[in-house]
Amino acid sequence: MTSVSTTARADAVGRRGPALVVLCFVQFMLVLDDNVVSVALPSMRDDLGFSTAGLAWVVNAYFLAFGGLLLLFGRMADLLGRRRIFLTGVALFGAASLVCGLAQEPWQLVAGRFVQGAGSAMASPAALALIALLFPGTGERAKAFGIWGGIAALGGTMGLVISGALTGLASWRWIFLINLPVALAAVVLLPRLVPESRAGRAVRLDVPGAVLGTGALVSLVYGLLRTGESNWGDMAAVGPLVLAVLLAVAFVAVEARTAEPLAPLSFLTFRFRAVANGATLLFSAAMYAMAFLLMVHLQTVLGYRPLAAGLAYLPYGAGILTGMWLSSRAVIRLGVRPALVMSFLITAAGLLLLSGVAPNDGYAPGVLPGLLVTSLGCGLSLPALTVAALTGTTEENAGLGSAVLSSVQQVGGAVGVAVLVALATRRRDALTVEDSLHAATEGFSFALTLAAALLTLGAVLIATLLGKTRRPEGAPDF
């Protein structure tokens, strides 16, 4: 294998802007499908005859494949070519979207969602690695990640709005079929904008490491998803989590002895990236749980209809875009560590504001202030976290670094939803009050307060550990 040539890279510089646009809109599509089905689930149940348990797997099948296969496909991107894996993932995602849109049986939709998740696991880390290589300087990389993250966050916000609009005005099938033109455009345009890149030396895929690492991630994500359906004492949840630990231990043992490991332990344990990924885990746990809990709170306590609840998130997208725009400037002027500490604390303050939303509060005085502060902090955090987590990555391991970061985000989100939602439910059920709305509000407030505490802990870890870390050669002053 050969790395991308200097001439090809120089020619690509002038096409970096259009390439970033294509990569961003593909990421918009991928993130959109993280939650686009949430509003449409009742319509899918009625049309295809889903059971209650089966309907949950319309969501879970996507996350299981996405979270479980990230590490494998991220490393394959380094070895086989990041552009090739990205285009394969986008094509697979588009084909699976067509299957979902035309599904006539429940199993067809669930299978299509699983393949969609696999396509996302191929495309997402490869896209992030391509951006990291196209924009190597700290300042330009922060700006590129800011744009990429802003478009991605907008996809997450718009997923709820688009799902409600298409389901109400046309059919739930169109939430999948609208992916086809984006996927087709990416497959046609990207080869003309981005040169191929891969590891600079011949390396064989570590098959035992791939099997163990993928098995550990799939078991972990599956166990965490099952905790949301049962409880932490149920063997249906505990069994996969125990298996994930055993497979992870075996993975570490194999990687320590393999000449060309899937994920070198020196890469995973490099302290700077380890701290950044640890902070990302806490951040994802808090923010995924917040998104889930707030959507439930808006509809069950404040009485919003699904489309109105989705529209209520629009200012959140605007706040994230503003934060993304400010983030690159904060990273350049303050450094990654101060920017991260500030952004984590702002986000925690926003969560505390949201935790005080009461049943009789109106949208503007009650929900909107916390939503805007939280979204601003989130927008400030995401590019800086990405810059920190990919610091020191090269053409040898950019795909692996991107996959590790994406895996941490998915696992953190699954943990946050499983744990914080369960704690909110138990807090609600423990209150012996006649007013069910008051009890639900107490549970919501308790969980968001804990989420704010997680972000505060993350700020402390960043402030105390990130600054003491030896910087890689050429890295900025953090």
Characterize the structure shown:
The protein has 478 residues and is mostly helical. It is 80% helix and 0% strand. The chain has 19 helices and no strands. Helix 2 crosses helix 7. The longest helix has 33 residues, at 398-430. It is globular, with a radius of gyration of 21 Å. The model is unreliable at 1-11 and 468-478 (pLDDT under 50).
Summarize the structure.
The protein is an all-alpha fold and 478 residues long. It is 80% helix and 0% strand.
What count of helical segments does DSSP give? 19
pLDDT < 50 runs, ≥5 residues: 1-11, 468-478
Portion in helices: over 70%
Structural class: mainly alpha
Distance between the termini: 34 Å
Major sheet size, sense and barrel closure: none
Helix-strand pattern: HHHHHHHHHHHHHHHHHHH
**Outline type:** globular
List the helices and strands and how they pair.
Layout: H1 6-13, H2 16-35, H3 41-48, H4 52-80, H5 82-102, H6 106-134, H7 138-169, H8 174-177, H9 179-193, H10 207-229, H11 235-257, H12 265-269, H13 271-300, H14 306-311, H15 314-334, H16 336-355, H17 363-389, H18 398-430, H19 436-465
Pick out its properties:
478 residues, 19 helices
